[in-house]
Amino acid sequence: MNNLKKNKLIDSAFKTVGMLFTLLGIIVLAILLYNIIKVGYTRINWDFLTSLPSRRASKAGIYTAIVGTLDLMLLTVIFAIPVGVGAGIYLEEYAKKSRFSRLLEINIANLAGVPSIIYGLLGLGIFVRFFGFGGSILSGALTMSLLILPIIIVATRESIKAVSPSLKEASFALGASKWQTIQRVIIPSSFGGILTGIILSLSRAIGETAPLIVVGAMAYVPFIPHSLFDTFSVLPMQIFTWTTRPQDGFAIAAAGAIIILLAITFIMNGIAVYFRNKWQNKLQ
């Protein structure tokens, strides 16, 4: 009985400490957001969104950074989603359980926690130098695809694992093949979790700066990219550059760009929640 009471007290203490740290984190985040919005909202207008970068803070805009960010995310989606989802399906449904497959699964899970700068160095060595793509938007997209691939693979596998085995057995009992079961039962049932993992991985990628600096993203690009081999800039890179400038005007511009970046991230997460709930309601 004494041990039971001690365990309850310990659990209660951990819960209390956890709640306090969570509350503290929320307060700190709220203060940061308040300060950013207070400083940056005055800078947000149509000219700020449609103007090119400038060495004058009052004329500096984020048009090329927004276009570069959206292009980069679109290419990353095209490269990463088919490979990531396909790899997750293969590892969970087709790969034989062996030492090699277990080692592969462990390494994929570990890759999800590798610092992003390592992926930047990998992209620099493979895409920029070996394949000769240079500091282009193609190099950036391929590097970001490597960054989010482990997250998509893990999310896909976990979503497939959550599908009830009875659904698979019922499909096989009705004469469906392996691929028909995956296509018509497993993927529809796990689509909400897969989509959530994809959007969350893109939300991480959209805020990354270090790997893009390594592969050659530019701080000042006075034009929007028209091909896969053009140089580019993105919002995190633009924010990083402005925050290093001594003029107060660039600090205000950086705060405005942070608000835009947060808005894009919140919209992406909102879309993920909407489609996940819609798909789950459809299946019920």
TrEMBL record:
Bilayer disposition of the protein: Multi-pass membrane protein
Predominant location: membrane
PROSITE patterns: ABC_TM1
Transmembrane segments: 20-41, 61-91, 111-131, 137-156, 210-229, 249-275
Superkingdom field: Bacteria
Keyword Methyltransferase: no
Gene3D superfamilies documented for this protein: MetI-like
Subcellular location(s) of the protein: Cell membrane
Limits of the ABC transmembrane type-1 domain: 66-271
Alphabetical list of InterPro entries matching this protein: MetI-like, MetI-like_sf, Phosphate_PstA
Pfam family, one: BPD_transp_1
Keyword Transport: yes
UniProt keyword terms in alphabetical order: Cell membrane, Membrane, Transmembrane, Transmembrane helix, Transport
CDD domains on file: TM_PBP2
Matching NCBIfam families: 3a0107s02c
Family assignment from sequence similarity: Belongs to the binding-protein-dependent transport system permease family. CysTW subfamily.
Protein name in UniProt: Phosphate transport system permease protein PstA
Organism, scientific name: Mariniflexile soesokkakense
